[in-house]
C-alpha cells in the first residue's frame, strides 16, 4: 500500500458557529493526483487551510506524513499556491528570481544565505515552469499565466513532496489552461510530486486528475466511497447532479 501523505478522519469545522466542514474523511497517498471540486462556499479553501496548518481543526484528526498535525513540523514538504495568488499586490518591487527564492527560505529558514545548491534549485524550478528567461523581470510585468507559473516555481523551490493548488486556473485564459494541466500531469508523473488540485472548473479537471472528490461541506458519495477513494472517470453530468444535491 502506498504511503499515506494525508489522512483526515471525522473532521468537522465551523466559522463562528456556522458549520463549514462536516464529517470529512479523506486519504491522500503518495503519487496521487487528486481533484477536489465543489461550488463556491463549499469549504474547499477551508479544508486546504486545515491541511496546511493555517487553521486548526476542531473535531477529528489530521495526520500529515503519518504525524498528527499538532506535532507536524516539516512544512517545507508541502508546497501551496493560494487562491488568488496572482492577484497579490503587483506593485511589489520583486523580481521573478526573488519571488522564487522565497520558496528556498521556507526550507532553510529566513536568516540563511542562499548557496550554490539553492541557486541551482531555483534555476531548476524556473526551468520546470518554463520561466527561466524571465528571472530578472519584475513580477508586476508578467501576464496572469506567467505569474501563476512563478508562484508554482516558488512552491517547487522548497522541493515539496506534496503540492496543493487552490483554483490555480481562475483568471487564466483557456489556451493557457490546457498547457497548465499538461504541465501538472508532468509534475505528477515525471517528478513524482503528489498533487491536490482544488477547482470549481468541473469540465477540465475530471479528465485530468487520477482521483476525484466532490465536496459541499461534506465529501459526496459517488465521488467518494466509504474509506477509500474511487477512481474517475465520472461523466460530467453525473457530477453536476451531485453538486446540486438533486
Ligand atoms: N474567515 C472566515 N470567517 C467566517 N466565515 C468564513 C471564513 N472563511 C470562510 N468562511 C465561510 O466558510 C464557507 C466556506 O468557505 P471556503 O472554504 O472559502 O469555500 P470555497 O473555497 O469552497 O469557496 C463559506 O460559507 C465562507 O463564507
Ligand atoms: Mg476557495
Q: What is the CATH topology assignment?
A: Rossmann fold
The CATH architecture can be given as 3-Layer(aba) Sandwich
- Alpha-beta content class: alpha/beta
Query: What average pLDDT do the residues reach?
Result: 83
Along the chain, the helix and strand elements come as EEEHEEEHHHEHEHEEEEH
Query: How many β strands by DSSP?
Result: 12
Low-pLDDT segments: 224-246
Task: Enumerate the strands of the largest sheet in spatial order, edge to edge or round the barrel.
Answer: 6-7-8-3-9-10
Within CATH, the superfamily carries the name: P-loop containing nucleotide triphosphate hydrolases
What compounds are bound to the protein?
Answer: adenosine-5'-diphosphate, magnesium ion
The helix tally amounts to: 7
Query: What general outline do the C-alpha atoms trace?
Result: globular
Beta content comes to 25-35%
As a percent range, the share of helical residues equals 25-40%
Largest sheet: 6 strands, mixed
Annotate the secondary structure layout.
Elements: E1 4-15, E2 18-29, E3 33-37, H1 44-51, E4 59-64, E5 67-68, E6 78-81, H2 96-108, H3 116-128, H4 144-156, E7 162-166, H5 174-189, E8 194-199, H6 202-208, E9 211-216, E10 218-219, E11 224-225, E12 228-229, H7 236-243
Parallel strand pairs: 3-8, 3-9, 6-7, 7-8
Antiparallel strand pairs: 1-2, 1-4, 4-5, 9-10, 11-12
Helix pairs in contact: 2-3, 2-4, 3-4
This protein binds adenosine-5'-diphosphate (ADP) and magnesium ion.
The site of magnesium ion has 4 residues, from helix 1.
Amino acid at each position: 500500500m502506498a504511503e499515506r501523505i494525508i489522512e483526515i478522519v471525522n473532521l468537522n469545522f465551523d466559522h463562528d458557529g456556522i458549520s463549514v466542514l462536516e464529517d470529512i474523511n479523506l486519504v491522500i497517498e503518495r503519487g496521487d493526483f487528486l481533484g477536489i471540486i465543489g461550488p463556491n462556499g463549499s469549504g474547499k479553501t477551508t479544508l486546504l487551510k486545515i491541511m496546511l496548518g493555517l487553521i486548526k481543526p476542531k473535531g477529528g484528526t489530521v495526520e500529515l506524513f503519518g504525524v498528527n498535525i499538532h506535532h507536524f513540523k516539516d512544512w517545507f514538504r508541502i508546497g501551496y499556491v493560494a487562491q488568488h495568488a496572482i492577484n497579490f499586490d503587483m506593485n511589489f518591487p520583486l523580481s521573478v528570481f526573488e519571488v522564487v527564492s522565497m520558496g528556498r527560505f521556507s526550507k532553510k529558514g529566513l536568516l540563511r544565505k542562499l548557496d550554490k545548491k539553492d541557486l541551482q534549485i531555483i534555476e531548476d524550478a524556473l526551468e520546470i515552469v518554463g520561466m527561466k528567461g524571465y528571472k530578472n523581470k519584475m513580477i508586476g510585468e508578467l501576464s496572469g499565466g506567467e505569474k501563476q507559473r512563478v508562484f508554482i516555481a516558488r512552491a517547487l523551490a522548497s522541493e515539496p513532496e506534496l503540492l496543493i493548488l487552490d483554483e490555480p486556473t481562475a483568471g487564466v485564459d483557456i489556451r493557457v489552461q490546457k498547457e497548465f494541466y499538461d504541465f501538472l500531469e508532468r509534475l505528477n508523473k515525471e517528478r513524482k510530486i503528489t498533487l491536490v488540485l482544488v477547482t470549481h472548473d468541473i469540465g477540465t479537471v475530471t479528465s485530468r486528475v487520477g482521483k476525484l472528490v466532490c465536496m459541499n461541506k461534506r465529501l459526496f458519495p459517488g465521488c467518494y466511497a466509504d474509506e477509500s477513494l474511487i477512481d474517475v472517470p465520472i461523466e460530467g453530468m453525473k457530477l453536476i447532479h451531485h453538486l446540486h444535491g438533486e
